[in-house]
Amino acid sequence: MDGANDRPVSPGRLLWHCRRGLLELDLILQRFVEHGLEKLNENQRADLFELLRYDDITLLAIVSGREECEETRLKGMVDLLRAA
Q1: Mean pLDDT, 10 residues at a time, over the chain (84 residues)?
Q2: What one-character DSSP code corresponds to residue 74?
Q3: How far is C-alpha 66 from the geometric centre of its chain's CA atoms?
Q4: CA–CA gap between residue 24 and residue 40 (Å, rounded)
Q5: Which of 35, 46, 48, 56 could form a disulfide with 1 if both were Cys (CB 3.0 to 4.6 A apart)?
């Protein structure tokens, strides 16, 4: 669900938001998109969409394990991104 208006988050919208400004983050997200995006259920897509709202530096720190995600419910998605 899109937190702003509780509608499902489309894969196309996620793809667009996965395009970032940091090469390292782009590489991680691209690898995840290629191998894991289609396997996500609606709740997981909503969690990913929420993670993608973090700024690039923070998101890279979370995905690379240098920082922990503040939202405990997003940790499952963080784990999926880390495994990509």
Answers
A1: 61 83 90 88 93 95 95 95 90
A2: G
A3: 16
A4: 22
A5: 46
